[in-house]
């Protein structure tokens, strides 16, 4: 079972502590998240703030999720329209 995500303010505080010289391992012992989670937060904060450019910012990740959802919906709608077109083509080809 997974726990709810840590609040953004808590993540920001962990990032600031790492930037101030604490190690993710120290913080993991003192607080609950794993050292790897803390390292991930630091990397994401660096991406979001333009300190590094080897990954997607949070805004880019959100846009990617939104666009993938939109593509999935459009594909489903296209498939429904294709099936409807086939159905109606059969109906109009039938002799009365």
From TrEMBL:
It comes from the Bacteria. Transmembrane segments: none annotated. The keyword Amino-acid biosynthesis does not apply. Keywords: Coiled coil. InterPro entries: Homeodomain-like_sf, Transposase_8, WH-like_DNA-bd_sf. The keyword Signal does not apply. Residues 57-84 form a coiled coil. This is Transposase. The lineage of its organism: Bacteria, Bacillati, Actinomycetota, Actinomycetes, Streptosporangiales.
